[in-house]
Amino acid sequence: MLFWQILIDGFAIGALYALGATGFTLIFGVSGVLNLSHGAIMVASAVAAWAIAGWIPVGPYVAALGGIGVGVVLALATYVLTVRPIQRSARIAEAEKEIFILTSTLLWGIIISEAIAYLFTNNAKTVLPVVEGVVTVLGVRTPANEFFTALVCWVSIGLLWLLVNRTRQGKAVLAASMNPRGVTLVGIELSTVYVSVWLIYGLLASAAGVLLGMFLGVSSYSVGPLTASAFSIVVLGGLGSVSGSLIAAYVVGYLETMTAYLVSPAYRTIPSLLLLVLVMYLRPQGLFGRR
Is 125 within a domain? Predict the structure, then answer.
């Protein structure tokens, strides 16, 4: 029974991590930015959905959309306030901009986390589930919203694939990840592409945050572990490799789920971090990285 419980829960957690990590990887692949405020944006989206449902008599759908809207605004603010000024600065050497961006996104994430703790306390918040009820699969009673979560995650990833591979704007994003200078030579504004990528990232990360809030609940204490999990996923999969991130998301998801059930939820992130150290030592480019 425990095996099937781990299998089902791990699949849902892996889908959530895959959704969030896809946007994380997309940003790095296009603009070379590792956004260390990722966990804070996810948590802020979930807390916003929880707060909207408590303040305004609206259904779970509207509350979830409100939370996603807050996450998108925070993602765009991350780019406008912390990333773009450094990228455009003439006072910072090109070789040093990466570490400045890492530091600024980390500090921005801390600001968001502290604001959440100040406004809503550190207590865990659970977002109202969109789909209610319980279903029995393989002898395991599982909330129906858990299967809805996995479905939404994979539909969103599929829509992202269609956007990138079947639309003009998506192909511009793909081209920017391969040759940014070439994109500007054909008349496409690189800044427009970057804003589009951050918008897509905001949608993916905030949706993952709201769904995670429905599944496990979140608090300001969740910010660090969520950012660490996302970082582990993109490094394990190979920086810039979307397919690698999807596979790594399930590796991390199942490792965390097994640890939570077999050891303790307090230690759920430790095995994936140990695996990250091992992979960085044996294969620094990640499992599916090119270099």
Answer: yes
Domain count, the chain: 1
Helix (H, G, I), strand (E, B) or coil at 136: strand
Residue 291 lies in a domain: no
Position 159 in a domain: yes
In a domain, 287, yes or no: no
Show the domain range for 225: 2-282
**Helix, strand, or coil (residue 32):** coil
Q: Give yes or no for a contact between 271 and 43, defined as CB atoms under 8 angstroms apart.
A: no
CB-based contacts of 236, cutoff 8 Å, min separation 6 = 244, 248, 251, 252, 272, 275, 276, 279, 286, 287
For the segment 127-182, what is each residue's pLDDT rounded down to a tens digit?
Answer: 988 888 888 877 778 888 889 899 999 999 999 889 888 888 777 887 777 777 77
Distance between CA 166 and CA 192 in Å, rounded?
18
